[in-house]
């Protein structure tokens, strides 16, 4: 077979490139995938076609759940609410966004693990719906008699604005229990946390109840918050007492949360919470006293204490190693202990008169091996692959940005040589709720432990003589061990106080019959329609730099998936501008997403406050058509072919036509192990154009390399560009200024952006930029050397700028949420110090807000 290596014509190449996506794996959750919608009386449930079973289950339940909210909450949102069903991380979650102009809910379809805080349930769709929709109707409670200004500007209602996080999450958790007869208020996990934290004197202080720090700190708003709200309801003896609180928060009197709370209950939230903690502590200590007096406990002995949550506890086939997945806040990963290693001898005092230290109550045995997070992913579901190797999975993003498991294997090195694998098969053990407490069970279902905390995740040795397990504490998890051949425990629950001060708190109330009717038939779905969820909103862009001041105001809109995005902007500015107008739209219902923009822009660099540039005042009118293909996996890639045409009028000169065809692309990836690693990314752009009958070609490329670390990430960027052919003044590279929302990106590629410098600080047919940056949280401190020059002339000295920038891309914002309420928005705020040129030794503060369709 012969292979012809001749030139492929563009008219053949382009259709081949466009056909490549058809050969790729089918898309599942992206906007261009196949989606369906279930429409009920009050909700639109949108889900990928692949998730139809979950969507159908949710649609069959949602109206019965909805019917209960008016009686429980006192208010239901009157207009349809959109519900999105996704599965981006293979974990259980739900999110409510009570935005008055576009309320929506996101449900993740993967059910929770049994050992999670939300593992006590009858049905995952039922539980997550009741919780998240409880948020919506509670937090969308409207202000009573709002003023004209509030009607025009409000984004959130008064309840969500004023309530602390523990009320928001605690109330939804309370509703979850009332509506399902199960969930966290009925589960062993919440009771174990309250019981153990109270026994150790570590119930969360009121000021920290909203926080997320510490072991399980982020869960306390749900667990302690819901228990405290139940305590308030019992004390008030009024199941609708919270409706009075919400009404007071929405009152025209504009009460704060503390004022409304005190008016509802007669005491402050802090004082009530402190009394609640005292009663819970009394009940927990009384339970401890009774249990210890009766000798009814069996909790094993401590092997080691850990600072994070543990799971996947198991012993190697040879019985010589113990493994656990540990979510330690500082050193997470798979921990493996060599059980045959000798314990280190206690250190003798150096001073013979110094008293020896007391042995710690809970020893800290460091692991012999630790498999750290790799490429930003914590190892998942580890299993032994023999006695010297561990198999696990990493959840890494695919082309849609969805985390998918990828198999990995890790071979252990060093340590005690493994012994022969025993022939005996380890006995089977289980764990579950025994009289409202997590405990271990043998194969016949008899309890092996009786703990005041929680015991789970049994890991027997192959000979069946030792059973390792996890036990909950207020500071982390202890790994304990016991002899499973001991006589069976006598039947019976813990000796609870018959008259507790806070009933059903340190021990859970049993599940109740499901108050909701069985799910009925779901409505038949129809293909997703953009128009059903299309919303409009106001837009605002802004830039203030040495080049001038410009604002863009207008309107935009999109549907809930983001398939269709549109915007119309009017640009206002000072003498330098830019001013004008822009309208554009993009369609993401195809793998190659097309976008189209029309624009009219007037800029006068000659009117700049600093370093006015004569000869470049211009009016530009035209259009751009572009296609965008973005893959969100590793590596992350972007490809944008574009065509643009514009009519440009320079001051005092006749207008010229300018046509540009180009291709932009970007690539980036990263490699990490244990929070350190490297990143590498690149961008390139090529354009071929004709301006007033003169042909030219533009090429730009940049490369960035970084050191990823938890202290101060470093990045080095290099960029080079050149023009060839016969470019005009309109086509030449120019240094300074920032991009504007009014002009398509492809027609601004000859700008070397630098917010601290005026536009047209330098022009030429070559450009070079070197930039070094140090990450300081969301900020980046940088030093930049930029130069634009003509190849025919000596290269001038670089324009140097140092500064500190806050960029929206570094904030980790949920961009899909931002897009639904404010359009495709990016912003940058900076403080700069130019070291050369007209701006030398000035401190320059800049702001840029950029909007794209």
Automatic annotation (TrEMBL):
Spans annotated as Disordered: 484-529
Pro residues: compositionally biased ranges: 490-501, 515-525
UniProt keywords, alphabetically: Signal
Top-level taxon in the UniProt lineage: Bacteria
Signal peptide (residue range): 1-24
Protein name: Uncharacterized protein
Species for this entry: Geothrix rubra
């Amino acid at each position: 077979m012969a292979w012809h290596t001749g030139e492929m014509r563009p008219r053949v190449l382009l259709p081949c490139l466009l056909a490549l996506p058809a050969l790729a794996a089918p898309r599942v959750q992206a906007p261009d995938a196949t989606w369906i919608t279930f429409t009920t009386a009050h909700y639109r449930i949108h889900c990928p076609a692949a998730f139809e079973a979950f969507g159908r289950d949710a649609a069959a339940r949602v109206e019965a759940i909805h019917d209960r909210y008016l009686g429980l909450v006192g208010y239901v949102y009157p207009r349809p609410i959109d519900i999105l069903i996704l599965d981006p991380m293979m974990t259980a979650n739900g999110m409510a966004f009570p935005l008055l102009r576009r309320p929506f809910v996101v449900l993740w379809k993967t059910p929770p693990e049994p050992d999670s805080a939300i593992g006590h349930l009858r049905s995952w769709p039922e539980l997550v719906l009741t919780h998240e929709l409880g948020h919506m109707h509670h937090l969308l409670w409207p202000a009573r008699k709002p003023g004209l200004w509030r009607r025009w500007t409000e984004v959130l209602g008064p309840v969500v604005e004023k309530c602390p996080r523990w009320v928001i999450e605690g109330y939804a958790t309370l509703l979850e229990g009332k509506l399902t007869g199960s969930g966290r208020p009925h589960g062993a996990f919440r009771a174990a946390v309250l019981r153990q934290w109270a026994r150790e004197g570590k119930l969360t202080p009121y000021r920290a109840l909203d926080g997320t720090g510490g072991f399980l700190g982020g869960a306390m708003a749900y667990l302690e918050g819901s228990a405290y709200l139940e305590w308030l309801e019992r004390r008030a003896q009024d199941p609708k007492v919270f409706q009075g609180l919400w009404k007071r928060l929405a009152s025209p009197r504009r009460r704060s949360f503390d004022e409304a709370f005190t008016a509802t209950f007669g005491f402050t939230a802090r004082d009530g919470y402190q009394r609640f903690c005292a009663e819970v502590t009394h009940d927990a200590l009384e339970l401890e006293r009774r249990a210890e007096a009766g000798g009814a406990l069996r909790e094993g002995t401590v092997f080691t204490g850990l600072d994070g949550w543990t799971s996947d506890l198991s012993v190697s086939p040879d019985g010589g190693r113990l493994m656990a997945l540990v979510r330690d806040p500082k050193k997470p990963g798979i921990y493996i202990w060599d059980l045959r290693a000798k314990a280190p001898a206690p250190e003798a005092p150096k001073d013979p008169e110094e008293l020896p230290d007391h042995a710690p109550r809970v020893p800290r045995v460091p692991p012999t091996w630790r498999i750290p997070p790799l490429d930003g992913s914590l190892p998942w579901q580890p299993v032994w692959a023999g006695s010297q190797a561990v198999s696990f999975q990493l959840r890494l993003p695919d082309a849609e940005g969805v985390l998918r498991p990828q198999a990995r294997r890790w071979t252990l090195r060093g340590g005690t040589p493994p012994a022969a694998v025993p022939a005996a098969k380890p006995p089977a053990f289980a764990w579950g709720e025994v009289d409202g407490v997590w405990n271990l069970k043998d194969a016949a279902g008899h309890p092996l432990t009786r703990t005041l905390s929680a015991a789970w995740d049994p890991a027997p040795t192959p000979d069946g003589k030792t059973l390792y397990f996890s036990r909950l504490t207020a500071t982390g998890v202890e790994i304990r061990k016991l002899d499973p051949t001991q006589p069976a425990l006598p039947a019976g629950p813990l000796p609870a106080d018959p008259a507790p001060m806070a009933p059903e708190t340190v021990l859970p109330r049993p599940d109740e019959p499901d108050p909701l009717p069985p799910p009925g038939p779901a409505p038949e779905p129809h293909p997703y329609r953009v128009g059903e969820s299309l919303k409009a909103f106001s837009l605002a862009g802004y830039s203030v730099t040495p080049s001038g001041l410009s604002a863009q105001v207008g309107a935009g809109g999109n549907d809930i998936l983001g398939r269709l995005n549109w915007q119309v902007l009017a640009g206002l500015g000072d003498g330098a501008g830019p001013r004008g107008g822009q309208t554009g739209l993009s369609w993401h219902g195809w793998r190659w997403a097309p976008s189209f923009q029309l624009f009219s822009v007037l800029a006068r660099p000659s009117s700049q406050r600093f370093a006015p540039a004569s000869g470049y005042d211009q009016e530009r009118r035209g259009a751009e058509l572009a296609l965008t293909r973005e893959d969100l996996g590793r590596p992350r890639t972007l490809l944008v072919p574009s065509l643009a045409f514009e009519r440009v009028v320079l001051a005092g000169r006749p207008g010229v036509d300018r046509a540009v065809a180009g291709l932009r692309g970007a690539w980036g990836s990263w490699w990490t192990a244990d929070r350190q690693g490297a990143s590498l990314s690149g961008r390139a752009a090529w354009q071929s154009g004709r301006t007033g009958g003169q042909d030219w070609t533009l090429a730009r490329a940049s490369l960035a390399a970084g050191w990823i670390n938890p202290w101060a990430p470093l990045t080095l960027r290099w960029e080079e560009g050149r023009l060839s052919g016969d470019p005009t003044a309109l086509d030449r590279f120019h240094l300074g200024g920032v991009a504007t929302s009014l002009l398509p990106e492809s027609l601004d590629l000859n700008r070397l952006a630098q917010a601290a410098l005026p536009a047209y600080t330098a022009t030429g047919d070559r450009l070079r930029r070197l930039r070094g940056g140090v990450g300081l949280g969301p900020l980046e401190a940088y030093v930049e050397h930029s130069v634009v020059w003509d190849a025919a002339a000596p290269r001038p000295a670089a324009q140097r700028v140092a500064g500190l920038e806050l960029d929206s891309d570094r904030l980790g914002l949920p961009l899909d949420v931002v897009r639904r309420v404010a359009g495709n928005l990016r912003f940058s705020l900076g403080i700069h110090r130019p070291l050369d040129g007209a701006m030398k030794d000035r401190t320059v503060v800049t702001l840029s807000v950029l909007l794209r369709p």
